Amino acid sequence: MSPVNANATQATRDVVNWLAHLPNRLDNKVTSGFFGGYSAWTFSTTQLDALYTATGQYPGIFGADYGAGWATADDPTTLIDYTCNDTLETYWNNGGLVTVSVHCPSPGYANGGNLNTHLANFADLLNPATETGARWRTYLDKMALGLADLQSAGVTVLWRPFHEMNGDWFWWGAQNSTTFKNVWIDMYNYFTTTKGLNNLIWVYAPDFGPGSWTSFYPGASYVDVVGLDVYDDNPGTSVTLNSAYNAMVGLNKTFAFTEIGPDTQGSFDYYKWANAFWQKFRKATFFYAWNDGWSPQSNVNASPFMNDPWVVNRGEISLGSITEPVTILYDFEGPSTQSWAGSNITGGPWSVNDWWVSRGYTLKADVNFSAADKTYWLSRTANTSLVGYSQLKARVKHASWGNPGSGVVALIFIQTGSGWAWYSSGFFSINSSGATTLSMSLAGVANLNYVRKIGVAFVAPGDASGSSSIYVDYVTAE
Fold it and tell me: What's the alpha-carbon Rg for the chain, to the nearest Å?
């Protein structure tokens, strides 16, 4: 994956590529983030350190806001401040990522302010000959100075301008969509071509609530990451959020939750977000938790949330380590058996959560090790294409109960073409203590465009006895 800016720095390319590959992982796949405050106004590391004290983790992403758009000044450019840069540079050098947003003062007023006042002449931002357009250029120049300062220090910035533009609470919000797109593109061209800023990852972030999530999208050539700002007490069950997520993922860009926090401060269970990631939002690559009363440490279950196996914190980011392309064919989340069936089993199959590879659910079936026929099958019959993949994998185990005798073995198999030709991995020894990965090479397999069945066969030895269970999880093509 490459940035939209063809002249992007190598570090920026590395971050874009690393983020894009996170959904392919089995764990360590959603990067944590935390807001540090408004530069020169409230920005500090005090709440960041409080988050560490509460959880033992520093977030993978730390950020600031350059703007104080609610304030006024005789010289409104002073309301855009980047004295936070030294701290952001240190965070980057310590292995974290950096993000910057800007609650910019309104360029429609000589002394700034008016953050929440709709700007009626928004189109003037495209015309520096107007008073509003000229003032906007001075704001852009001040922002660019801060971003250039980070570029000179080698820092890549997740740059999130005009956030929540689909709402009506900021001066840039609820504008004519065509005009908004042109203003975004003008900023992009000014920063990349005129200012030579090649350290920016461009983040488009509407709010989840008002709808019109993609109406202001300036186009694939001007955005690297799409996201949603979400303040909600029930992210895993919100119908609106689910619709917004599907709309944004449909743009075929790296997806993130660009702000998160609760509606009810102080008692929100942050682990709801961990559950939402694996149940609903499996393409999320990072979240950015707001500070103050919205922060994890000011609410409930901050530590389990930040230490969840799926969460990537500072110290776990390795930009040179890219997971090879993986497609998760079956993970049995939901819960759902995803139309898998069993043969020679005594119960199931079911999607259960008494064991899993990464988190969530797995496929389980009961078996009788004492039966005369000691081969047990779990499989799905459906037309699937595995063209372009070199390996098929499944993670399996058997239960700790029952007597496995001299040892249970298992293989992964497929049947292809009109003749249902059989191909398999060969047997792997499995046990009850943890997952064994069954891996099958697809080299030389005919009719990969027409795979009729994918399944796993378990075989117990002659000296096995008693009732037990078998499990299959994370069937992937790689």
Answer: 26
- Of 89, 131, 259, 478, catalytic: 259
Residues 6+ apart with CB under 8 A from 246: none
Give helix 131-152 / helix 85-93 axis angle, nearest 10°: 40
Q: How many other C-beta atoms lie within 10 A of the C-beta of residue 316? A: 13
Q: Which domain range does residue 345 map to?
A: 327-477
Strands 391-398 and 467-477: antiparallel
What are the phi and psi torsion angles at 354 (to 5°)?
-85, -5
Q: Is position 324 annotated as part of the catalytic site?
A: no
- The answer on 227 and 197 residing in a single domain is yes
- Give residue-wise pLDDT tens across range 237-271: 999 999 999 999 999 999 999 999 999 999 999 99
247 and 395 co-located in one domain = no
**Cβ atoms 60, 97 nearer than 8 A:** yes
State yes or no: is 164 an active-site residue.
Answer: yes
One domain for residues 353 and 305: no
Domain ends where: 257, 278, 312? 312
Residue in 89, 164, 324, 478 annotated catalytic? 164
pLDDT (tens digit, 9 = 90+) per residue, 315-354?
999 987 766 678 889 999 878 999 999 999 999 999 999 8
Q: What is the DSSP letter of 122?
A: G
